[in-house]
């Protein structure tokens, strides 16, 4: 009787003893797999994070690493993901990043790092230009929310607005002196300022459909601005 109970207890203890190491082994294997999937330095093979210099450099060998394709422009430029941003802070961040990754700083490095610095510099320039201008910033913010405005614009504009654009374009085409061009330019700037304030409120209210409508109008006036520049450029 005692032998049977003792055997039963021993078998139970055996299951507990063999089960615990099994779980530890599984956890170690999972941790190892997770470690293998983590980004590693292309040069020394060491783990890339947490790295110095905003994650651009390997913390072990200090080699420049490839750009992080998962990082959006707002995160890269250290800005809140919103339409209202501090453009002075944006400019300072741009200058800071260029001091880290500008190709001139890598002229004596390996070809790999030279190529990577070109890629980083391009991304930083694109991020800065995109977030600096209200129109491109708004379009990018919409894109992050899964909304894009096609180049030909699929948004149905009201006839009154289209008539206004047509009249401005006609007046600009017929302008023969600088005073008329400046008058049109002043009108367009006023419109763009009004649109910028309205689209900012739309984003604050998460009204993305309204933001899309306003940004489409801003794009029309942006095209007029380009025509004004061409008109003012001497042949």
From TrEMBL:
Biological processes per GO annotation: [2Fe-2S] cluster assembly; protein complex oligomerization
Pfam family name, one: HscB_4_cys
Residue span, J domain: 71-136
Compartment(s): Cytoplasm; Mitochondrion
Pathway(s) per entry: Cofactor biosynthesis; iron-sulfur cluster biosynthesis
HAMAP family (UniProt xref): HscB (MF_00682)
Protein name: Iron-sulfur cluster co-chaperone protein HscB
Organism: Octodon degus
The encoding gene: Hscb
């Amino acid at each position: 009787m005692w032998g049977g109970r003792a055997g039963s207890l021993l078998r139970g203890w055996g299951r507990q003893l063999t089960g615990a190491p099994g779980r530890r082994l599984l956890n170690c294997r999972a941790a190892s797999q997770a470690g293998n999937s983590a980004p590693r330095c292309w040069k020394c093979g060491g783990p890339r994070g947490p790295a110095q210099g905003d994650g651009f450099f390997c913390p072990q060998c200090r080699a420049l690493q490839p750009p992080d394709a998962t990082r959006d422009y707002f995160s890269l430029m250290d800005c809140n993901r919103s339409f209202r941003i501090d453009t002075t802070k944006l400019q300072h961040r741009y200058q800071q990043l260029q001091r880290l990754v500008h190709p001139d700083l890598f002229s004596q490095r390996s070809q790999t790092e030279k190529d990577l610095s070109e890629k980083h510099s391009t991304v930083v320039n694109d991020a800065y230009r995109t977030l600096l201008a209200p129109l491109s910033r708004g379009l990018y913010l919409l894109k992050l929310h899964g909304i894009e405005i096609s180049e030909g614009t699929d948004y149905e504009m009201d006839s009154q607005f289209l008539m206004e654009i047509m009249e401005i374009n006609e007046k600009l085409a017929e302008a023969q002196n600088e005073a008329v061009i400046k008058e049109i330019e002043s009108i367009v700037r006023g419109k763009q300022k009004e649109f910028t304030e309205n689209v900012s409120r739309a984003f604050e209210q998460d009204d993305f459909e309204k933001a899309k409508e306003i940004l489409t109008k801003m794009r029309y006036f942006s095209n007029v601005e380009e025509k004004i520049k061409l008109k003012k450029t001497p042949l």
